[in-house]
Amino acid sequence: MADASYTSTPQDYDTQLGDYFALMKPRVMSLVVFTALVGLLAAPVAVNPVVAFCSILFIAIGAGASGALNMWWDADIDGVMQRTAKRPIPSGRVPAGEALSLGIALSGLSVMMLGLAANLLAAALLAFTIFFYAVIYSMWLKRATPQNIVIGGAAGAFPPVIGWVVATGSASLEAWLMFALIFMWTPPHFWALALFMKSDYNDADVPMLTVTHGRKVTRLHILGYTGLLALLAVGTGLSAVGGPLYLAVAVIFNALFLKGAVEIWCRDEVQAEADGYAVEKKVFRLSLWYLFAHFGAILIEAMMRPFGLGGW
Q: Whole-angstrom Cα distance, residue 283 to residue 264?
């Protein structure tokens, strides 16, 4: 029973609301919103602004639902990882059951409303994305295989496809190229993080590649995936969503990303520990800007096309 002498204050409510919002992983949600919006606007079909706004809103809610379900399931390992120990559930600020209820409610709401606002295919893809992230990745892959990030990256790669389907009602090659861009970016992005956060995954018994195969193998995998990503990213510049601006951005960023991957591969643990994993952290920071730069360039190309400036 609550203490009758306790009186809540506006600050308490702000804290509670902030904790529930944090459950939805706002940083991840912002990336989902941005890439979904790019997919919608890059599509060759104009969308009513009201439909576009509502669709992006419901996609964002679906992303938040995925985050809440992920935090509910991972509360036990979040509590032993330094990077995640202060999240709302392990810190005791939000009960796990409430996080689960929020995730389920938002999942149903987002899928139903996207189906009404846009089309059933977009709603089905959103439902599959939530299921993939919450069940396939969080409940199965994350704790079962070092390929967790590789396969699980598909969950974060669907938003631009959903945006494209909102506009066109179908998914064409260009939509899947944007999907592939995020899918191939995810492993080197997270493995760069894992190189300097290895103790977290060891403590939580999560089979990240650094834990199961060691850092030397992880460094080689980063180089391999970054090379494939560079080919894909530059090749996308020659597609219908590409153009001169995008191609220039892709060449510059992928040259920098490849340079960083080579530097990571050439280092041993003595060097890395001596400088506090400075190179690994630099490459990780670059990867944070990588998707924003590529999808931003796709968006600008799309906005210039009506004026005969974008594209090829």
A: 8
